[in-house]
Amino acid sequence: MKRTLPIWLALAACVALACGALAWLSLTTVRLERAEAKSRADALVEERVRLALWRMDGRLARLIAQESTRAVDAWVPFYVPLRAFDLEGATREPSTTRIASTLLFGTPEGVRLHFTFMGAGPLGSPQVPGEVQEPLTRAAGVSPWQVKEYGALLSALEAKLDRRVLLALEPGAPSAEAVIAPPRGVIEFDRRMSQAAMNAAFPEPQGELPLTTLGAHDRGVAVSPMVPVWMGDELLLVRRAEHARGEVEIQGAWLDWPRIQTLLMEEVKDLLPGASLVRVEAGAGDLLERRLASLPVRLVPGPVQVEVGRGSPVAWSLGVAWGAVLLALVAVGFLLFGALSLSERRAAFVSAVTHELRTPLTTFRMYAEMLAEGMVTDEAQRRSYYETLHRESNRLAHLVENVLAYARLERKRAPREAEPVELGSFLRDSLHRSEERAREAGMRLVLELEEALEAVPVLVEPSAAEQVLFNLVDNACKYARGAEDSRIHVRAERRGSRVAILVADHGPGVSRTDARNLFEPFSKSSERAAESAPGVGLGLALSRRLARAMGGELRFEQGRGPGAVFAFLLRSG
């Protein structure tokens, strides 16, 4: 572990660096995408605002044009015509004729009352005739209740009206509170202003006031365009009428702002359902891009839900990139873990094999030297030395055989094809070497085979299956040596479509800790090899690989009593 710690630390540093760089790139990309999405959403909102302003100014155009083009005489309940003729075309005296103003009979939608005054003179209205005109009012068919209602409105307006503000209006210019002068670059507002001026049917004032086109010029009256003015919470449309004698008359319309606001909101509710209109205060020139050109009010869009597209390709790309990076990191981690594990196992294997080879080679060298130099003169002792050399050579041969067999499997060179053989004959032919190994260890191999299973065919590759059985018996000889019961049982039993060959001993068994790595190759280090029975921890791993190559299986099964039980499962032929 200590040797691999720097490698894992280096990998962790690389992973942290790669993830940090990708995270920074992802955050930057997401921020840019969100900024772009916000810009698109803001552009869509502004487009809706622009369209809403055009709609509202268009809705107001009729009202503004209607009030701007009214004749000067319309502000008088009954006025004297400029000329009068009879049916034969003869001229009559106009002073004997009175014409009722169209405003006498009511106000258009959006207007509460029309009013007029000169200087400090009384405040009048075409909807409120004087008492001297009562006979004319009755003759015109105007209801007294209507005159009374308009009279109440006139009294209410007089209490709110500041004549100084209206008289101070420059001819053709709005008040200071309703400055209509867009800043540079607000082209949209300028276009709507031009359209509003055209709707009012008046050119932009240049020098003197223009004369109205509805006959006022015959009377020598110059009329200015209508100008919207806030008077407290009330909205007025006012204009100046300069008479020939120098008298200045203020004519205006008291607008029904709540009603107008409701109509305008209905006009744009499909675009801006949460919009509202607020009055423009003095000095609010920076908000002209959302102002109406017709009235001194500003549009507040309110909350606007806009759809800027779903399923961002950037988000999908980032997700795929993160998935690929994480998958690559996991793959690198697994590969590194496998490489380090293999390196550790191989190092442990080399160490264990070195330990396993040292003991028999030392015995070989020492006994060979003693025998070659004639130091052993006793025949019985010489025979014992020869038997020891034979046993150690078998041990070395078995070790080399296991290593070579495992190497062949690692190179994907599987054993020969399995062939059907009778179970009884296979076991008796395969256990000769295992019986000899048991005798050398001072143990006894016992074959327990029921007569019904003698002729059962099993699919095996004889040499590979014999090696599996020998490895199992060899393990039992090494780990169960010294047990009170020296028997090693080999028995067979049916398990569904398979036949299980069980190899059991009466030794100390296998602990749970060792059972987890029982079939791992190279699992025994030189230290463990020195502390435990001889071997390099390759026999069981090789045996399982050989069993699976034949279509079988090798398992460790916990016995009911002391000892270990291994089940070698073969397919029935």
Please outline the helices and strands.
Elements: H1 5-68, E1 78-79, E2 84-85, E3 91-92, E4 99-100, E5 111-118, H2 134-140, H3 144-160, H4 163-167, H5 187-199, E6 222-223, E7 227-231, E8 234-242, E9 248-255, H6 257-268, E10 276-279, E11 297-300, H7 313-372, H8 379-410, E12 419-422, H9 423-430, H10 432-440, E13 444-448, E14 457-460, H11 462-479, E15 487-495, E16 498-504, H12 512-516, H13 526-531, H14 539-549, E17 553-558, E18 564-572
Write up what this structure looks like.
The structure is a single chain. The chain is 47% helix and 16% strand. The protein is an alpha+beta fold and 573 residues long. The strands form 5 sheets. Strands 12, 13, 14, 15, 16, 17 and 18 form a 7-stranded mixed beta sheet that branches. Strands 5, 6, 7, 8 and 9 form a 5-stranded antiparallel beta sheet that branches. It has a two-stranded antiparallel ribbon with strand order 1-4. Helix 1 (5-68) packs antiparallel against helix 7 (313-372) and helix 8 (379-410) crosses helix 14 (539-549).
Salient structural properties:
single chain; 573 residues; alpha+beta; 7-stranded mixed β-sheet; 5-stranded antiparallel β-sheet; 14 helices
